[in-house]
Amino acid sequence: MKLKYLRLKNFRRFYGEQEIEFSTDPNKTFTIIHAENGTGKSNLLNAINWCLYDEFVAGTSDPDLIINSTHELEKSKTCSAEIKLIVEDGDRILTFIRKKKINDDSILKVYEGEDDIPVPQHEYRTKIESLIPRELSKYFFFHGEGLKTLTNDATNVKSAVQDIQGITDANEVLSEITRNKNTLAGKIKTSNKSGSKLEDLGKDIEKLEEIKQKKLNQIKEDTEKRDDINLEIDVIDKQISQSNVAAVKKNQELKTSSEKNIKDKKGQIKAHNLKRYGHAQNYYRDIMYSRMAGKCKKIINELQDGGKFPADLSDNLIQQIFEKQECICGTCIKVGTDEYKKLESWLTKAADAKYTADVLNLENQHPATLKNSQIFIDSTADHEQIKAQLEADLAQQQRTFDDASEALSGMKEDNVDELSAQREKLVKKRNRLNEDIETMNTSVRLHVQNLSPKQRDYEIELKKSKVDPALKNRYEFLKVAEERLEKMLSSYEVTAKSFVKDRINEYFQKFATKDFRVEFNSEFLPSLLEKNIKDSYTKAPESSGENLLKNIAFVCSLMEFSAQRADKKNTSFQIEGVKSPFVIDAPFGDTDGRYSNALARILANCQAEQIIIFLSKKHYKGSFESITEDKKLVGSRYIIDNYATNTEKEKFDSDEDNAEIEINGKKYKQMHAHKKDFGYSNLRQIKI
Amino acid sequence: MASIWIDKKYSELMSEIAPREGSEDEQTFTSMAHASCFAAALAYNQGKAFDKKLKINRGSEIRDTVLGNKEFTDQMNMLAMAATESHEILDHKNDDLKDQRYEILENFTNQGLGILLKLREKSPTDVTGINVVTQILHDQSAENVGGESKSELGSPDF
């Protein structure tokens, strides 16, 4: 079975109409929905679940909130939410439309074939169960948060193994047979003569059964206690993950980094301003004296053009003028005249090399002054622009620093140490209870062994006795039926457990970060063993990453077991296996790169017909991206665009890294300033 | 000994644009002599001529031990030649002409500081005067290379 198409109308955070076409290409099994936290990832998973089963996945907040609140405010009494889901199962096409109007229960309509032929209402459940039975849906439509604790709880594991074998109904039949058999045993006891061997055996068995039942009750009680402790541990884990330690740390880091950036920016601004001082000091002379240099050049050139300088300062020429008493221009120069006196002073200067050099020096200044004027213009052209940018950067850093300081001033770091200590105590208590349960189970098994000869003797005596033969025959029949059914179910369980066990170990051998082996205890709870010295395997301390890895491998193996059963002929005691899409929401939790890589490789190699995965940028970039893109496994891709309100935007702005995502070299904006006065999400298809 | 004097009314301005003794703050000019040469050129470029009526109330003194360096004599000579429109002013053997060159520099410097002071008053936050000086340099550069002046300071109101 594959999901083909999903349409949402005013469903929870999705305002208006949105649609997704899932990849059904057998070679490109992945459909990726890129979305950051709080933008509606889990609502997509809920849309599928709600459409088929009229319920949300466990742990969904505000499950009563189905209709988009903005739409509800706009339309009030006529508002509604609707999900349309089209699935293909071999040649079959089924369309499911669930609609909820305000103040009404939701209504489902099912259509078959491309012509949308309505399916009779009484067949709805059968149609859905034939695709994915409700009890299996929780393994195929998976909420990532649930992955963390899946195999910590024996009840979860037990029901998972039972569910996947399709023997829920058969187990109910077995309980019914046992109940009838015990009722008959009671009737036989009351019709029996006192003091007989049969009565003694019956009493012995009754005592042993009583002890067995006490032990079983004790196991049940301890299991409940252990499960409660697991819940408490989950709550503490959540408190730790939601504590403000991360926020305090983040703000402290922001404060430190912005403080450093402020210092750097101030330094850059100072250096940038100093450049201006340097430019003023280096270039002022040429710039300010350019006009004077031009003037000097002009004066000197005019003298030169008139043959007066430096030629008229030539010693010989002036001597000739004195001798002729006439200048080269024809002016009469007689001794005692002003001209004569002037020439006399020039003659003195003509012999003065320093004076000539001083004058000629001023002739050559002008070109350099022009050149440096141009250099100054060029070097100061973008000064103001750069300065403005630096000042804007400084102001931004100052705001970040102020915000972080303000946030820190109102923040007292939560005491996570206390929570961790409390968690450790609970883990110890849980481990003790697990050991008690294991010991008790062994004791029950021994007890059953002791009970068996007594039961055999009882049956022999019962045959010999004069108890009503009809009662005897009915008891005998139920006894045989119980034994055979138990044997059959036990063989199914062995097959399922052995498949799951082998498959998990296979996953770990191929993809785990270390040399791990998975071991199952008597309750089929998996735990990790790590390779130790001399090739021995010892219990490994499980990190949250390893725990996730174990659990995703567990879910994948359950799914594969179901798919394998779908290909086989089942007994009349089993519900048929199904091949299902694997829809998984944020499976990576807080795992680091190593585990993300292993998880991505497990998902890429798991034999699901279709994988629909909702991922944040943090979990997509890196391993997941390289594995899926390199192997070209992605057939369909969407981004959830988040349009944030002012309050939400402030929250997202502090997480600017996620404002856009780069996919195959192209950048896509994921977070947008609000266009309207409410926050909402939009689905955007990205071309493959 | 030849030297030039800065009028007392420009002492504060001078201390802002040129370094005071012991100050480590960045200033627009590296010495009073540089600031003086800048101011003198500013006056010349603004079309000022030698003002015979100018009276100087003596404040700071810049001696010829500083102004006698070639860096400044070139500027002083250029100003003197341009202002008198004669090369004769450069006669270094004539002490009267040397005094005249110093007098020209002093006259133009004090006129230039007057212009600068008026421009500075329009930009009170410009503590070191760098903005005003940069703008003047920018406008003058543009004029030198034949481009348009982009001054936002406007002309001083004399």
Can you characterise this structure?
By secondary structure, chain A is of the alpha/beta class. Chain A has 4 domains: 2-132 and 583-685, P-loop containing nucleotide triphosphate hydrolases (Rossmann fold), CATH 3.40.50.300; 146-191 and 468-579, no CATH class; 196-242 and 414-466; 249-309 and 336-409. Chain A contains 22 helices and 18 strands. Chain A has helices at 41-53, 69-75, 124-131, 134-140, 144-147, 154-165, 168-190, 197-242, 245-288, 290-305, 315-324, 338-350, 353-363, 366-380, 383-409, 416-464, 469-511, 544-567, 593-605, 617-620, 623-630, 646-653; strands spanning 2-11, 14-21, 30-34, 80-89, 92-101, 107-112, 117-118, 141-143, 516-520, 526-531, 537-539, 582-585, 611-615, 634-644, 660-663, 666-669, 671-673, 680-685. In chain A, the strands form 4 sheets. In chain A, strands 3, 8, 12, 13, 14, 17 and 18 form a 7-stranded mixed sheet that branches. In chain A, strands 2-1-4-5-6-7 form a 6-stranded antiparallel sheet. Chain B is mainly alpha-helical and 158 residues long. Chain B has one domain. Chain B has 6 helices and 2 strands; from the N terminus they run E-H-H-E-H-H-H-H. A two-stranded antiparallel ribbon of chain B has the order 1-2. The longest helix of chain B has 27 residues, at 95-121. Chain B is globular, with a radius of gyration of 15 Å. Residues 148-158 of chain B have low confidence and may be disordered. Chain A binds chain B through residues 273-274, 276-277, 279-281, 283-285, 287-293, 295-296, 299-300, 303, 309, 348-349, 352, 354-355, 358-359, 361-362, 365, 369-370, 373-374, 376-377, 380, and chain B through 26-30, 34, 37-38, 41-42, 44-45, 71, 74-75, 77-79, 81-82, 85-87, 90-93, 128, 130, 133-134, 137-138, 140-142, 144-145, 147.
